[in-house]
Amino acid sequence: MAFVTANWNPLGEAFYRKIELYEMGWNLKDGLRECLVAAAPYGGPIALLKEPQRRSPSVRPQLEIYSSSGVAMASFPWKSGVVKQLGWTVCDDLLCIQEDGTVLIYDLFGNFKRHFSMGNEVGQSQVVEAKVFHSPYGTGVAIVTGASRFTLATNIDDLKLRRLPEVPGLQGAPTCWAVLTQDRQSKVLVATGADLFILDYTSPPGLSPQATSIVHMCVSFSYKYLALFTDSGHLWMGTANLKQPSVVIMWDGHILVAGELCSQFSLSPSLFHRLVYRKLYPLAIEICRYLKTPEYQGVSRVLKHWACCKVQQKEEADEVIARAISLKLGEAAGISYSEIATKAYECGRTELAIKLLEFEPRSGEQVPLLLKMKRSQLALSKAIESGDTDLVYTVVTYLKNEMNRGDFFMTLRNQPVALSLYRQFCKHQEQDTLKDLFNQDDDHQELGNFYVKASYKEKAQIGHLQSAVDEYNKAKNEFAAKATEEEMRLLRFQKKLEEEKGESLVGFSLHDTIRTLLAVGLHKHAEQLYKDFRVPDKRYWWLKLTALAEKEDWEEIEKFAKSKKSPIGYLPFVEICVKHHNKYEAKKYVSRVTPEQKVKAHLAVGDLEGAADAAIERRNDGEISTVLSRCSPSTDRALVERLNRAKATAAKK
Amino acid sequence: MAAHLSYGRVNLNILREAARKELREFLDKCAGSKAIVWDEYLTGPFGLIAQYSLLKEHEVEKMFTLKGGRVPPADVKNIIFFVRPRLELMDIIAENLQPPREFHILFVPRRSLLCEQRLKEQGVLNSFTNIDEYILDLIPYDGDLLSMESESAFRECYLENDQTSLYHTAKGLMTLQALYGTIPQIFGKGECARHVANMMLRMKREFAGSQNQILPVFDTLLLLDRNVDLLTPLATQLTYEGLIDEIYGITNGYVKLPPEKFAQKKPGEGGKDLPTEPKKLQLNSAEELYAEIRDKNFNAVGAALSKKAKIISAAFEERHNAKTVGEIKQFVSQLPHMQAARNSLANHTSIAELIKDITTSEVFFDNLTVEQEFMTGVDTDKVNTYIEDCISRKDPLIKILRLVCMQSVCNNGLKQKVLDHYKREILQTYGYEHILTLNNLEKVGLLKPQTTTRNNYPTIRKTLKLWMEDANEQNPNDISYVYSGYAPLSVRLTQLLARPGWRSIEEVLKMLPGPHFEERQQLPTGLHKKRQQGENRTTLVFFLGGVTYAEIAALRFLSQMEDGGTEYVIATTKLINGTSWIKSLMDRPEPF
Fold first, then answer.
1. What does the angle CA B314 – CA B315 – CA B320 come to, to the nearest 5 degrees?
2. Which keywords appear in this protein's UniProt record, sorted alphabetically (chain B) (predicted)?
């Protein structure tokens, strides 16, 4: 038996060994010389771009993709710009970063997916170096330009370019650099000579390990550790915050490829995702079942991915594909048919997409694609069905831009939910459209209201009010028509009086207008309004009494009280005088108050005796008690006794 | 800090914690120092979720109110806008942007494509690093109370036919079910209730497969449209908390009171230095005394306060009995709690005095008398002289509208002549522009002309026992104590659903607007609750369009009833009273 620990080598307190798992199946004539190489994490594919500097149309660089064991998966000549860097995303997509800042994205089978740019300013100065990095937010790209400026995007699927600050004192290109993700932020670590800088927005740069010049650096996959290679041949390894150096060893020209050790089970979800990206569906499903992954997270995802591939099979008929998909997916939990349909639509198969959408249980999810496919009426019904009003608004806005006005209104007319939402929108945003909508529906009541509102906003008040009257009449709302006519009459009166007397009246209610007139002594005009507007007597008396009392015009009040029998009685006269601290005047009206209100009137003017007399005379127990409660036992002793006696007599009866 | 949320039958702190966690996560997404620019409307509701300390822990250094112009200078890396998804707010945000800072938007309670489209049109959509949503539908308000704090929900649903808030309601109920388990039984009454139930069932279907494995906490959900019971909010609430709300208005759990009664009287200082700022108090069940008295009829509050006063002074007297070091130590350890109780007592004594000044006034009495006449069906078909007098005196318009609407509701509509008379009086006195408000009140059914000669309100009143002659205010035996005689219709419906069931009142249910229905939601096997004998059922009552404090008091009364058999948790779009409710329905054209 072999000595099992023989091939383990010590490294500090730990041991390691190297074993060859398998031989690469590829056959590379020139090895990896003059190649850009990128290997995807977790045993993913490997991409090679041979002789990337070639620019002539006759001799192009060749892009090749191999599996991790060296099985060829794709190969094609590179016809786009000069590639500076290759890299893989966490979803096994290949990123090709060009000199001009354009990043092209291919799937692992070499199919072009999309491209994006690292910013316009890259254009002239060109990308000198680029790196692909991974963070909790996805895959990011960082570049440095000829002008030594860094730009990075933390997540290429939600592209936000950040231009980092300049490196202080940097002349020419930095010696080397790497991207770190710390404290939920991506930062760039740059070495120039012996100086080390961290570029971000917050913390100041200036960390420097002991070395003469750093020529290469590398960050561990978890961003916990950092390796620096110096011109003196030292390799420095430590935590990425540069605070705790852990190992420093000499190196002699070999390249070490090192990864981190992870436990097999914590890896399994991402292991599993990679199987899906690599189209190893049956294996992925088996793993899901073995790991007892919840259906909607596991098997359903695999099936969705499968279906998205299926719809791209151009040789099969729509019917066949739709049936095959619905059969296999059935009612699998959490399947998004709209995603599959979107894929079909992207491949130019609109009919197939519509067929697939019918399987989608979430009506809201169907809407964006239906709109894209110009099935707007259907999109509107689905949006309404979902109950999500924002979605309804979105479709309505879309329809408004797509259709002519007549058709648009007609569509809304058939969808009351959408119509009322659109009305709300117009109320705040497009008043004129609102009017058109009411017009189309012959909604005269709302048109009337519309003009009333307008009359408060715009100068042409009378004109708007006249329109309101017309509409209310058409709506057979006699009351509103009359009231608005009355309003016009009042307005005319106010304007006229403003001109004649200089009293500011417009905007006042009828009540306040009369009150103002009385206050300034325009009694005749007040009287005229009272008659013209058929103000009920009771209200007019209250109004006049209050207005005169405010002026403390006691003489006028007395005249008013004597003018005819008061429809509101005389208690209000008593009370209002008291309210204005004139008991003398108040007493004048006490005698004219009805018997039921006598006690109250006497009490109001502070006449306890009178109140007691009235209460006793009326033999009213409640009133006697009220008066009693106002008496003070010390000062009104005689009165209290009298009241108590009367109370006893009243009780007997 | 929010311990009172976990005292109830259902631990609502779980919901609050979930909301706080989500908030922290969002704040951490915007790395570095930050300033929050608030849609003013949101600060109140957010206060129920998180205090400033939480924001500060996550590097929020400044806060501003969103208004036109540019964000005030602040030395921060991130500017975050916390806004409702409203177009007009998007325009203001666009004005506010000023690089070089990172901008973020947090939509509450939901992102809106329409708003993002607007930002795009304004050319600023790409200026935002994060555009996110903060799903804050149901906010834990108290141990048994959830509110969406959506002021305009009733107006939108019943006047404008905009059902956005109902969508949020359904979403909120889905979140609630995700945390507290699927609610097996759903009952409802009203058009909006039906719509919400439909959306919930649809949403459940859409998530088929991801089965909820939580043992259900709620047995039943009852969805009630506010327009099924238009009467209750119009009546003046007569519970302690109800009156505080009627008189001073409770906003997001806080009340502002006139300061005079709260002046700290120190010997020698006399009466000078009276505070001028209103006294702001938080009102919830975390305060022991308040929890005891909030739901009592106001006439029973005085006795409760003096009883409490005796207990507290007795507790302080204990110090004379403390002889040994151990006893003194024991006494001292209780001091903070006792002092808090004494402060609380002083505050509520002051509030009760303030309220008493009002409830004993003639104005209050006269108003209440007319309300009670209407509710008992006295002379509801004629023009009421008290209302006429109030108009003549130009009392506050809302008071008039509350009374006229109440008369209309209690008479199943007013005779055209009577209605027109009131309307004319109102327009002449308060201004013709109120024709729009009157029109709104008619649209939602609060005011209406009598179409049939048959007034079915008396039938409803008698069948549901809405008026109880001998309401016991001190030791209540029926929910009618909350309005000193009137039993809120909505709560009666809730009570009858639990026992003996709605089948017994089919006829009356048909007289009330909207359909009534029952739905069942399947539970996964193994989650069917086995009820212990004597164990109460838990019902969530959701008031679509608002609920009053008095109705809540009535439901709490039912929860506490011995052998009542059901405990209630209350949810609503907004806590309302007659005044705030009518106000939300008013249209005030702004003069040019």
1. 85
2. Cytoplasmic vesicle, Endosome, Lysosome, Membrane, Protein transport, Transport
